[in-house]
Amino acid sequence: MDIDLSDLSRPEVQEHVLSLGTLVADLLGVFAGSVLGALLAERQKLDLMGFLVLGLVSGIGGGILRDTLLQAGPPLALLRPSYLVAAFGGAFTAFIFELRHGPTLKLLMSLDALTLGSFAVAGTQRTLEVGLSPGTALLMGIITSVGGGMIRDVLIQRTPTLMRPEPGYYALAALAASAVCLALSLSGHKRIALLAGIVVGALIRLFSVRHGWRLPVKKAQRPQPPVKSDGVDGMEEEPR
C-alpha cells in the first residue's frame, strides 16, 4: 500500500514573515557587525579577501544560523540582496577608511554595542513573527547576537569573545536586550520593543566595558596529589 507523504502533518510555520522594524534592526546589525569583523582582519594583517570573509561571516553568520534553526524557509540573507549589500558595504568601509585610531575608536565601541543590541532584538522579533514560543525567541535573540562572532573567531583560531574573561558582559547584554524586546512585544508594543531592546543591550555593553565589569572566573586552587583511577574519565592513576 502506497503512502502519500504529502498527507503527513508538520508544524505550521509562517515562512518569510518579516516586519519592517525587524528588517531595519537586522540590516543595522549586519552592517555594523561586518565593519567590526573586517577590523579584526586588519588586526590580523589579512588581505582584501580576509576583510570580505570575516566581514561577511560577522555580518550575516548569526542570522543564517538563526534562520536555519527556525526552519522557516531559506535564510533571509539568501533571499534579500540587501543583506549582502550591507555586509559587503561594511567590510569595504573598514578596508578603505582608517577606523581603529583617533576619534573613531569611541565610535567603534558604540558600534559594537549597537550591533549586539540590534541582532538581539532582530532575532527575538523574527522568532515571534514565525510563530514560535517566547522561550525560543529569547534563545534565538542571543544566538543571533553571538553566532556570527563565534564563527569568525573560530576561523581565526582564537577563543570566542563570548567565552573569554573580558570586561563587557557580552552574552548578558544580549540576554537583557532580548528579554526587554520580548516583554514589550508580548504586551503589544512591537515598535517600542525594538528600540528599547537595542538601547538596553547597548547601554549594558558600554557601561560594562567602561567600568571593567566582567563575569566571575573560577579561582585556581592548590594542586591536589594524584589519586588512583577508578575507571572514571578525568581521574589520574597514582604513580608507582
List the helices and strands and how they pair.
Layout: H1 20-43, H2 48-70, H3 76-79, H4 81-96, H5 104-129, H6 134-155, H7 170-186, H8 190-210
Describe it for me?
It is a single chain. With 240 residues, the protein is mostly helical. The protein has one domain. Helix content is 64%, strand content 0%. It has 8 helices and no strands. Helix 5 crosses helix 6, helix 5 runs antiparallel to helix 8 and helix 7 runs antiparallel to helix 8. The chain starts with 19 loop residues before the first helix and ends in a 30-residue tail after the last helix. The N terminus and C terminus are likely disordered. Keywords: Cell membrane, Membrane, Transmembrane, Transmembrane helix. It is a multi-pass membrane protein. It is found in: Cell membrane. Belongs to the UPF0126 family. InterPro entries: Gly_transporter (IPR005115).
Total of helices:
8
Question: What structural class should be given to the helix and strand makeup?
Answer: mainly alpha
* Number of β-strand runs: 0
**Overall mean pLDDT:** 83
Helix content: 55-70%
User: Main sheet?
Assistant: none
Number of domains: 1
Shape: globular
| Strand and helix order | HHHHHHHH
* Weakly predicted, low-confidence segments: 1-15, 229-240
Roughly how many Å is the radius of gyration? 21 Å
- Proportion of residues in β-strands: under 5%
Rounded to the nearest angstrom, the distance between the terminal CA atoms is 68 Å
